Amino acid sequence: MTLELAANQGAVPTMPNMEESPLAIRGMTVSYGQKPVVFSVDMTIKDGSMTAIIGPNGAGKSTLLKAALGIVKPLAGHATVYGKPMAAQRARIAYVPQRASVDWDFPTRVIDVVLMGLYRELGLLRRVLQSHRDTAMACLERVGMADFADRQIGQLSGGQQQRVFLARALAQGADLYLLDEPFSGVDAATEKAIIAVLKGLREEGKTVVAVHHDLATVTEYFDRVFMINTRKIAEGSVGEAFTPENLDIAYGGRLATGQIDQLALAAR
Amino acid sequence: MLWDALTLQLGYNATLVTIGACFLGVAAGVTGTFLYLRKRALVSDAISHATLPGVGLAFILMVMLGGDGRNLPILLLGSAVSAGLGLLCVNWLTRNTRLAEDAAIGAVLSVFFGFGIVLLTVIQTMSAGRAAGLEGFLLGSTAGMLWNDAVVIAVGGAATLALVLMLRRPMGLVAFDPEFAASSGVNVARIDLSIMGLAMAVTVVGLKIVGLILIVAMLIIPPVTARFWTDRTDRVALISGLCGGAAAWIGAALSATAPALPTGPIIVLVSFAMFAISMFLAPNRGVLAAVLRHGRFQRRVHMRQGLLALAQGQPIYENYTLRLLRKAGLAHPDGVATEAGKARAAKALRDEKRWELVRADQAFESAAALYDGLREIETVLTADQIAEIDTRIGGPRGMTA
């Protein structure tokens, strides 16, 4: 019965805002084995916003992003980007995966990682020109890593690795930036640098969506919140959605009552 | 004699084998790089063992159709078909069952190889089979190599190499970060299949020279050798290709110098020699470099600890520390500081205090990040900054009685 429900919701043809939304997800269900990790989730990202996807561990935050991007295959549902199917809009999307998802002993330099962001432009055979290198260097400059261009990536600290990943996303020159836990395991200086870059993107009119795990910084960093625990709990501006009631539903008993009040007070 | 072999002056067959092997070595080295970077090295073992039933079936089919069954291109085609089947089996098992890839590889490898051996045994009993020499595909046999065989190997190797060079960018991208690759629209499954398919092509091309059991060595040893020498993907591929080609050339030449030396195994041993040399002698990543680096680091730690002990008038317990201080002329054999030792010790102690202040001060955050307990503070801060720190510590003060 539950899967039918998901399919039905996914089949609803149009919803408000879908045409212009940078990222609209409809009826998305993803399961590993028989257990759904994300169940029948709708999401409509507002143009020019900075949205935090929050929820407890294993709530399907990262999985939702990966399913939207087609990295994992959803059981049901689909995603559109600026009103068109994802596959046709790859050039408008930049993605920052979790830092821990790659092997940092891989034989490659910082500049080469950033040049990967230009893959769509370079394709199979086009030569890497000075102009491409200049683009990559400008992106490294923006995250404060220009001095590290020729380093092997294994020599970087966690925060530096994260900034290189962000530089690669900047090189993609996209309109929509999707980040998976960009602040996890980074030092304070890096966190500041990353949030400055993201806010800069918003000022340029770009849209930013980040999986975020630190509830204490949600109000300071983001203007919108998408709360998920397998199912969608809430979606809206920080003031509307980041409330004690919603946090209680999303996190269940995992947050102490005092903690919830404190966080939500900060949101007011 | 060896020189004659290396310069291709040892007769027609030896020359054919050497040139064919070299083409194969370069193709295997470059292709193997991406297999190794994608951490799928062992899949090639499953692929190579899965070639055997194809060789057997192709032979039987040719004999049944009235041929003599020894047409190399058709045998290779048969091996490619069954290797492809084995590859699909591994892929399917990994994706659709709970078997991990290593278990799937083990299952496919042994079943296909077992079936192949059964076929070879059957072929032995056929009248046309006795002289077929299909066992040669197990470890390679170059004795009767013909011009046409060499052409097949050279063309196959060159074609594989060209394809690898064409696909190197997406293959590198997928090997480093498959999620990002997928998000930029790369079909990761298809690129993975290409990597495996190219490894399969190398395997098939190499059956005649090194045989299916040892081809894995030609795919894997050169890239791990190359990895010791560089930190860049394109250079790993380049060096790996050179190593593979050189090992094949030298190995084939060596085996030509004596009648009883098998080509494939000698090539593998030459390749291993290159690997061993690289492992010990490569700068940065080599074993010797690591040992030297560790020794240097240990010396600095002991020196520093010794100086701090001298400065604070504590006894030096470790013989190694004392020996270092004595050799540097900083301490007497009884552990008492020399004049030079006193000066250096005072400087060391002052630097400790300076670091303490630097690390406590937010303004020096980037400098403090470089602290490792050994670094000279002059390498991190400018003279002005140090002077500023020093004013906070203050100069030597007299004692009030």
Automatic annotation (TrEMBL), chain A:
<protein>
    <submittedName>
        <fullName>Manganese/zinc/iron transport system ATP-binding protein</fullName>
    </submittedName>
</protein>
<keyword id="KW-0547">Nucleotide-binding</keyword>
<dbReference type="InterPro" id="IPR003593">
    <property type="entry name" value="AAA+_ATPase"/>
</dbReference>
<dbReference type="GO" id="GO:0006829">
    <property type="term" value="P:zinc ion transport"/>
</dbReference>
<keyword id="KW-0067">ATP-binding</keyword>
<dbReference type="InterPro" id="IPR027417">
    <property type="entry name" value="P-loop_NTPase"/>
</dbReference>
<dbReference type="GO" id="GO:0005524">
    <property type="term" value="F:ATP binding"/>
</dbReference>
<keyword id="KW-0864">Zinc transport</keyword>
<dbReference type="GO" id="GO:0016887">
    <property type="term" value="F:ATP hydrolysis activity"/>
</dbReference>
<dbReference type="InterPro" id="IPR017871">
    <property type="entry name" value="ABC_transporter-like_CS"/>
</dbReference>
<feature type="domain" description="ABC transporter">
    <location>
        <begin position="23"/>
        <end position="255"/>
    </location>
</feature>
<keyword id="KW-0862">Zinc</keyword>
<keyword id="KW-0813">Transport</keyword>
<dbReference type="InterPro" id="IPR050153">
    <property type="entry name" value="Metal_Ion_Import_ABC"/>
</dbReference>
<dbReference type="Pfam" id="PF00005">
    <property type="entry name" value="ABC_tran"/>
</dbReference>
<dbReference type="InterPro" id="IPR003439">
    <property type="entry name" value="ABC_transporter-like_ATP-bd"/>
</dbReference>
<comment type="similarity">
    <text>Belongs to the ABC transporter superfamily.</text>
</comment>
<keyword id="KW-0406">Ion transport</keyword>
Automatic annotation (TrEMBL), chain B:
<keyword id="KW-0472">Membrane</keyword>
<feature type="transmembrane region" description="Helical">
    <location>
        <begin position="236"/>
        <end position="254"/>
    </location>
</feature>
<keyword id="KW-0813">Transport</keyword>
<feature type="transmembrane region" description="Helical">
    <location>
        <begin position="49"/>
        <end position="66"/>
    </location>
</feature>
<feature type="transmembrane region" description="Helical">
    <location>
        <begin position="12"/>
        <end position="37"/>
    </location>
</feature>
<dbReference type="InterPro" id="IPR037294">
    <property type="entry name" value="ABC_BtuC-like"/>
</dbReference>
<keyword id="KW-1003">Cell membrane</keyword>
<feature type="transmembrane region" description="Helical">
    <location>
        <begin position="72"/>
        <end position="93"/>
    </location>
</feature>
<protein>
    <submittedName>
        <fullName>Manganese/zinc/iron transport system permease protein</fullName>
    </submittedName>
</protein>
<dbReference type="GO" id="GO:0043190">
    <property type="term" value="C:ATP-binding cassette (ABC) transporter complex"/>
</dbReference>
<feature type="transmembrane region" description="Helical">
    <location>
        <begin position="105"/>
        <end position="126"/>
    </location>
</feature>
<keyword id="KW-0812">Transmembrane</keyword>
<comment type="similarity">
    <text>Belongs to the ABC-3 integral membrane protein family.</text>
</comment>
<dbReference type="InterPro" id="IPR001626">
    <property type="entry name" value="ABC_TroCD"/>
</dbReference>
<dbReference type="GO" id="GO:0010043">
    <property type="term" value="P:response to zinc ion"/>
</dbReference>
<keyword id="KW-1133">Transmembrane helix</keyword>
<feature type="transmembrane region" description="Helical">
    <location>
        <begin position="266"/>
        <end position="292"/>
    </location>
</feature>
<dbReference type="GO" id="GO:0071281">
    <property type="term" value="P:cellular response to iron ion"/>
</dbReference>
<dbReference type="Pfam" id="PF00950">
    <property type="entry name" value="ABC-3"/>
</dbReference>
<dbReference type="GO" id="GO:0055085">
    <property type="term" value="P:transmembrane transport"/>
</dbReference>
<feature type="transmembrane region" description="Helical">
    <location>
        <begin position="209"/>
        <end position="229"/>
    </location>
</feature>
<feature type="transmembrane region" description="Helical">
    <location>
        <begin position="146"/>
        <end position="168"/>
    </location>
</feature>
